[in-house]
Amino acid sequence: MNNKILEITNLNKTYHDETGEITALKNISFSVYDKEFLSIVGPSGCGKSTILSILSHLIESDNPCIKFNKENCILGYMLQKDSLFPWRTILDNCLLGLEIKNNLTKDNIKYVNYLLDTYGLSEFKDKYPTSLSGGMRQRVALIRTLAIKPDILLLDEAFSALDYQTRLTLSDDIYKIIKQEGKTAIMVTHDLAEAISMSDRVIVLSKRPGTIKNIYKIKLSNKSTPMNNRKCKEFFEYYDKIWRDLDVNI
């Protein structure tokens, strides 16, 4: 990891209402590297998802603080719910982003079909979301996001709506797809095990106002899939350190 694709410097975010102001984030600074998988963890209400919203321009920060080191950097946002349209086929759902961007070219349609074929969804192209399990629907949601060829994927609690067993399996699937497609990912999660097993680095935020408490570079012996990474001896050491950093129930 040598090439910085994104730099955030002294990010601050304050919300105002009739009762006054609330500082959500304070002096947040970190970089993201090309093809890195980065996770952000912290107590509820510390501003984890706010960072993703600011990066994707859904809300504004208090100050200019974001620098993309790639021209016309494309972001893809994957949410907790798959939000698939029930009246559209799986293929048509995956093409939605391209339609919105008015970029539904033959090459892009071919790329989407390639993704569906490669990642085990080819037989479901002409079926509707009700035919799929929760895990498969999330894979479709990822392929819909990948269809626009994003440089950075933003994953906001992308597995939290699933049962535990499905969540474990899907984390392996999503991780493999992201790595095989050579994407950079920033994931927000409450699940420390998920963060440690999937990430190259984990950023720990404090309670509100969210500040960076620690950044861990995850070094695991025999690092492979998230499922297998949970068995590494270093995994439990990182878990204990990050839990102590949080110092609260999350």
| Percentage of residues assigned to helices | 25-40%
Give unreliable regions as ranges: none
Q: Please state how the strands of the largest beta sheet are arranged side by side.
A: 5-6-7-3-8-9
What's the quaternary structure here? single chain
What is the CATH class name of one domain? Alpha Beta
Count all strands and give the number.
9
Overall pLDDT:
92
Q: Can you tell me the CATH topology of one domain?
A: Rossmann fold
How far apart, in Å, are the first and last alpha carbons?
Answer: 30 Å
CATH architecture classification of one domain: 3-Layer(aba) Sandwich
Shape descriptor reads globular
Number of helices: 9
Provide the β-strand percentage band. 15-25%
The H-level CATH homologous superfamily of one domain, spelled out, is P-loop containing nucleotide triphosphate hydrolases
How does the helix and strand content classify structurally? alpha/beta
What's this, in brief?
This protein has helices at 48-55, 90-94, 96-100, 106-118, 134-146, 164-180, 192-198, 226-229, 233-246; strands at 4-17, 20-33, 37-41, 66-68, 75-78, 152-156, 184-188, 201-205, 212-217. With 250 residues, it is an alpha/beta fold.
What structural keywords apply?
250 residues; alpha/beta; Rossmann fold; six-stranded mixed sheet; three-stranded antiparallel sheet; 9 helices; 9 strands; 34% helix; 24% strand; globular
Give the SSE map:
Layout: E1 4-17, E2 20-33, E3 37-41, H1 48-55, E4 66-68, E5 75-78, H2 90-94, H3 96-100, H4 106-118, H5 134-146, E6 152-156, H6 164-180, E7 184-188, H7 192-198, E8 201-205, E9 212-217, H8 226-229, H9 233-246
Parallel strand pairs: 3-7, 3-8, 5-6, 6-7
Antiparallel strand pairs: 1-2, 1-4, 8-9
